[in-house]
């Protein structure tokens, strides 16, 4: 998908039937349903975790596999912080879901395919360096989303990057052609870097921690109030300047302008896809934007995706 986000290199063949991948043993079904539902709520998925089954030959159904897959995403930062054991477990769960794909022809199900999809996990993709930006001081990589409009055969990938008082986004627009019930041929049109947006104001803290001990800075803050007021004024002026800056469009290099994607699993709230270079993407649908075919893809996603 980052390939879709940043127009990346070509990829390898994907296992039959899917857009995601899997690994290792499945977790015991007796795991806490409450914890699973809480984790699933954070990702936006709506499936319910089935009751535990004590049978020794228990075979988890699709909903149980989805719940286990979501559990395995806990604390892996969408695939950036991943041990080999957890990676194998995720790969196995993805493979099991692909084998039970309820939608035999994902690309022929426009109502399911269309919508705003949020990245939950990726492997072997060029999105990982982008996720690594979060390791920079005072930087956070926000939602990575893909808005698909099946009716117009278009989609837009978007990455939000946030700092202490500002945020920006990187977008890539593309068109796609259905080549088979699972394979899409993709052509990237252009990328856009949005102008930075000021989302906060600098404030002198009332306290600070020094060697683990809180220090009261109230008196110092009061003494620096004139300086702080001047800084706030300058900050306001900067906000006005940035608000007037246009977004910057850039072309996609021809050698990176085309790729392909296999949708190997699709239901009403989960999609697994495989792409170039063995990349795997697991995405959850944002139910708040299910009527995506009525939206303008050129509009900022912030205007249609509520903050969680």
UniProtKB/TrEMBL annotation:
<keyword id="KW-0934">Plastid</keyword>
<dbReference type="Pfam" id="PF04755">
    <property type="entry name" value="PAP_fibrillin"/>
</dbReference>
<dbReference type="InterPro" id="IPR006843">
    <property type="entry name" value="PAP/fibrillin_dom"/>
</dbReference>
<dbReference type="InterPro" id="IPR039633">
    <property type="entry name" value="PAP"/>
</dbReference>
<dbReference type="GO" id="GO:0009536">
    <property type="term" value="C:plastid"/>
</dbReference>
<protein>
    <recommendedName>
        <fullName>Plastid lipid-associated protein/fibrillin conserved domain-containing protein</fullName>
    </recommendedName>
</protein>
<feature type="domain" description="Plastid lipid-associated protein/fibrillin conserved">
    <location>
        <begin position="64"/>
        <end position="283"/>
    </location>
</feature>
């Amino acid at each position: 998908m980052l390939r879709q986000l940043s127009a990346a290199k070509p990829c390898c063949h994907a296992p039959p039937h899917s857009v995601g991948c899997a690994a290792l043993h499945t977790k015991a079904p007796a795991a806490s349903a409450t914890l699973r539902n809480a984790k699933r709520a954070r990702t936006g998925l709506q499936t319910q975790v089935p009751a535990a089954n004590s049978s020794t030959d228990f075979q988890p159904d699709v909903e149980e596999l989805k719940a286990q897959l979501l559990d395995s995403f806990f604390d892996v930062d969408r695939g950036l912080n991943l041990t080999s054991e957890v990676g194998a477990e995720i790969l196995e769960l993805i493979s099991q879901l692909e084998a039970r794909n309820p939608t035999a022809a994902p690309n022929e199900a426009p109502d399911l395919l269309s919508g705003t999809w949020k990245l939950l996990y990726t492997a072997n993709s060029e999105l990982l360096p982008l996720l690594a930006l979060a390791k920079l001081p005072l930087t956070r990589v926000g939602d990575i989303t893909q808005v698909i409009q099946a009716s117009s055969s278009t989609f837009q990938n978007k990455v939000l990057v946030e700092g202490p008082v500002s945020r920006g986004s990187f977008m890539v627009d593309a068109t796609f052609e259905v080549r088979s019930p699972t394979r899409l041929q993709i052509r990237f049109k252009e990328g856009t870097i949005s102008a930075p947006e000021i989302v906060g104001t600098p404030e002198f803290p009332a306290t600070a921690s020094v060697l683990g001990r809180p220090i009261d800075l109230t008196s110092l803050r009061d003494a620096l109030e004139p300086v702080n007021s001047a800084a706030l004024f300058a900050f306001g002026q900067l906000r006005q300047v940035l608000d007037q800056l246009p977004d910057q469009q850039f072309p996609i290099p021809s050698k990176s302008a085309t790729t392909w994607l296999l949708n190997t699993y699709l239901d009403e709230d989960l999609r697994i896809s495989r792409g170039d270079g063995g990349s795997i993407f697991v995405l959850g649908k944002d139910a708040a934007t299910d009527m995506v075919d009525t939206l303008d893809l050129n509009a900022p996603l912030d205007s249609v995706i509520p903050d969680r």
